[in-house]
Amino acid sequence: MTKVKNKKNGIALFQDMKKCKEKISMITAYDYSMAKCVSATSIDIILIGDSLGMVVLGYEDTLQVTVENVIYHCSAVRRGAPETFIIADMPYLSYHLSEEQTRKNAADLIIKGKADAVKLEGGYPSRIDAIKAIVDMEIPVCAHLGLTPQSIHKFGGYKVQGKKPEQQEELLKQALAVEKAGAFMLVLEGIPEILGKEITEQINIPTIGIGAGRYTDGQVLVYNDLLGYSDMQPKFVKHYAEINSNIKEAIELYSQEVKNGVFPAPEHIYYPITQ
After folding, report:
1. Is 249 considered catalytic here?
2. pLDDT value at position 251?
3. Domain ranges in the chain?
4. What is the CA radius of gyration of the chain?
5. How does residue 231 score in pLDDT terms, banded at 50, 70 and 90?
């Protein structure tokens, strides 16, 4: 298996991995410690997702996340994973108002956040224009279709998209459009497996699935969900650990040892007083 060790060659290697049918692994991360752990594994890509608004900042959704939030967390992740390919989410309203705003925010995520690429949601005409504007600045763009979290009010919540034939046709059309606009990768979220398979077969850029079935070119999960460090468990999430319960047990044990005078013990004390 190939781990993308040199982020400068990442995009070409991702394309080769698709051609060779070698799966691409992606995970979110939001801070230095997380990133350092991830960088010691075979993970190919770190995504600084606007999901940080929910799992780090405690918001109800991703819509309140700002460009400054993403820059702050992205730069911390870069310090922990200096050689890993990093994609930064463009938050809600950061690419919606004007081309000038779109270009500036994308550039800030690359220059200040130290990301290698940016990700934005949607595939209708205004989003195609945004992708073209960013690619025109030589900034790689990852597109995102299906259940796009920034559109939850339009969707009426976090609901699977592309269940009806006409919806599937539209999503395939958008996938072809984002590829033509210059996107180097496409995240597919919350869609039927058959649609994930069809889109992956129809486009030449790698697809990364999250709740899109087994046939995408790779998968992404939120760090907190994967580790059981979250109270939520959508259908597409597998817990590879149960960190939440382990952390609670450890903190409770610490608290009880402090209250009972067990901690600190002599081995934790500088020049302890001898009795």
Report:
1. no
2. 97
3. 7-241, 244-275
4. 21
5. confident
- 178 close to 125: Cβ distance less than 8 angstroms: no
pLDDT-derived band at 233 (thresholds 50, 70, 90) equals confident
Could you tell me the pLDDT band of residue 2, with boundaries at 50, 70 and 90?
A: low
Architecture of domain 7-241: Alpha-Beta Barrel (3.20)
Which residues, 6 or more positions from 46, have their beta carbon under 8 angstroms from its beta carbon? 26, 27, 28, 29, 35, 38, 39, 77, 81, 84, 85, 86, 87
**Catalytic-labelled residue, pool 189, 193, 252, 257:** 189
SS3 annotation, 51-109: CHHHHCCCCCCCCCCCHHHHHHHHHHHHHHCCCCEEEEECCCCCCCCCHHHHHHHHHHH
Q: Which residue has the tokens 């993970």?
A: 43
Total residue count of the chain as it appears in this document: 275
pTM recorded for the entire structure? 0.95
Question: What whole-number distance in Å separates Cα of residue 54 and Cα of residue 65?
Answer: 9
Average pLDDT over residues 249-272: 97
